[in-house]
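Re-run with default settings, no changes from the original entry. Doing this only to confirm the output is reproducible before filing.
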Amino acid sequence: MAELKTKKTAVSVDSFLNKVTNAQQRADAFQLVDIMTNVTGKPPRMWGPSIVGFGEYHYVYDSGHEGDICLAGFSPRTSALVVYFGAGLEQRFAKELKKLGKCKVTKGCLYIKRLADVDLGVLRGMIKANVAFLGVQRSGGT
């Protein structure tokens, strides 16, 4: 089985985020760190070269593929902040997405250009609910 690429690293989250060139996106990323730390009660850690993650859980797919990944996380990409929710985002959060504000939604990710474009209370609630969902659905959540 192939080795997982996305693993916890010893890279400093602050050092990584301070390299984000867009000042607004950098400020938004630090704000997301505060939100996710508050929601999860876990400190931020780098996962791979570009994901800021909080907590972790062990997953096992029906195919037998398994691994560990962050319970909540995001990545400050050039075009947007990507907040990771996992499969089923649109179904589990249909009501919240209508209230969230300006963002793009894919299978398991929210793409947010600026945090000012979304309702932070709704986003915080979605992150909290997702962490609870993953903790219940997956064994070994910490």
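Strands lie at 44-47, 51-54, 57-60, 66-69, 72-76, 81-84, 104-105, 109-112. The first strand starts at residue 44 and ends at 47.
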